[in-house]
Amino acid sequence: xxxxxxxxxxxxxxxxxxxxxxxxxxxxxxxxxxxxxxxxxxxxxxxxxxxxxxxxxxxxxxxxxxxxxxxxxxxxxxxxxxxxxxxxxxxxxxxxxxxxxxxxxxxxxxxxxxxx
Length: 116
What we know:
single chain, flat
């Protein structure tokens, strides 16, 4: 983790390093992925591979279409202030269909679901 002191600013008061998407994807994300894979129980992963694929792929696609068409139906029934086209509603569905797996795992850990 990079740390900065206030006297390390440029003359205009800006920090010499900016937090950009490139910095995140090239510096911060690889160690997070490496740590996740390093401490993963591979035996449990491969035993549950089909279930993981079903929930990850099929569940996400189903969720995207269900959310998109529900939003389009609400828009077509004039229950919303804006009228959405089917592509716009499906785009919104795909953006919101992916669930943060870290949050889901944290909730599952909190309620003690499927201790392997």
